[in-house]
């Protein structure tokens, strides 16, 4: 095998900028990410609450979460939960590294990004569940459930803005476009 073929087999490819990239985010992870981004924008800012398209978009998110949970156990390396589960030691090490200026670079999710991703997935699942519950006869007209659903949705919005801001800051700090990597699936090696 030629050196180029060996590098391609390892997931590396030559770049026109002189640096190498590696496959990180598979199509399933990227589909999940952009489906959730689109659905949240639609349901938070465009669609009428409780109406048909709002509910349908919520069901799409619920299906995407179910798919992502399964993929977290059987998917590619960086998609698997075991690859990025944030233990207290990993989180502490990352925070101390950031403070000391010796932060470890992660190809997949870093520990703080892992906390964010798992938090967002949990909030999305709870929002989908409470949205679905508002359609049941048992909870018909219960304002408390609608308020919980709204609070969860607002929490998603806050965390999503923090997540997007952190992606931009980390892109600048590490001199790589993390948003673009979620489009292409590749990051700097």
From TrEMBL:
Identification of the protein by name: Cytochrome B
GO cellular component: plasma membrane
A GO BP annotation: respiratory electron transport chain
Organism encoding this protein: Rhizobium chutanense
Compartments it resides in: Cell membrane
GO molecular function: electron transfer activity; heme binding
Membrane spanning stretches: 31-47, 53-74, 112-132, 152-172
A Pfam family recorded for this sequence: Ni_hydr_CYTB
Residues of the Cytochrome b561 bacterial/Ni-hydrogenase domain: 24-185
InterPro entries: Cyt_b561_bac/Ni-Hgenase, Di-haem_cyt_TM, Hydrogenase_cytochrome
Membrane protein topology class: Multi-pass membrane protein
Coiled coil (residue ranges): none
Annotated keywords: Cell membrane, Membrane, Transmembrane, Transmembrane helix
């Amino acid at each position: 095998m030629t050196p180029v073929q060996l590098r391609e087999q390892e997931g590396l490819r030559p770049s026109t900028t002189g640096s190498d990239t590696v496959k990180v985010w598979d199509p399933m992870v990227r589909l999940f990410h952009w489906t959730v981004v689109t659905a949240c924008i639609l349901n938070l800012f465009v669609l009428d609450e409780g109406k048909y398209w709002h509910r349908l978009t919520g069901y799409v998110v619920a299906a995407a979460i179910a798919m992502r949970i399964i993929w977290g156990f059987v998917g590619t390396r960086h998609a698997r939960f075991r690859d990025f589960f944030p233990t207290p030691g990993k989180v502490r090490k990352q925070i101390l590294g950031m403070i000391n200026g010796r932060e470890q670079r992660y190809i997949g999710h870093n520990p703080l990004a892992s906390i964010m991703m798992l938090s967002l997935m949990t909030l999305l699942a709870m929002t989908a569940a409470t949205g679905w519950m508002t359609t049941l006869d048992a909870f018909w007209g219960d304002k408390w459930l609608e308020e919980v659903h709204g609070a969860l949705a607002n929490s998603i919005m806050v965390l999503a803005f923090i997540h997007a801001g952190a992606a931009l800051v980390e892109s600048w700090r590490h001199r790589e476009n993390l948003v673009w990597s979620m489009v292409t699936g590749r990051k700097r090696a």
